[in-house]
Known about the structure:
Number of helices: 4
Strand content: 15-25%
Distance between the termini: 45 Å
Amino acid sequence: MTGRSMGSHQSTSMITDEWLTPPEILQQLGEFDLDPCSPINRPWDTANHHFSILDDGLSKEWIGRVWCNPPYGKEAEQWLKRLASHGTGTALIFARTETKMFFKEVWAKATAVLFVEGRLHFHFVTGDRAKGNAGAPSVLVAYGEKDADFLSQCSISGKFIDLRR
């Protein structure tokens, strides 16, 4: 099973389901105040403040502009719902545009999306880039005017769609 794509941030051969956002993506999006679902160990910061699984970031108070690369799978919906309710931040998820979650938490609530060209290569908590790609296309989802503006002005290759009503 080695050399296969990661699909849903995990595979049957993986030891961990903690995957880091490629640093080149984060560098394009500006400074974040909080990452409520940060890996326990990380070689680079994703925000000024971090909550890991040990902190239960969903139960904590969220502040400022939030970065959210949630656990992929069914629990992603609760993170997107919380981010939409918070109103300021950006999430990185798989571009599963046909799912109930996408219709409920992205199409109905997001301010903008940026469909990333190609498939991302996430990183291990050591900082090493995974050999296999993520196994599915990714999308950056902005909630709030500031985050929509960051997506519209960044140089990440892809297709920007403004959802402001």
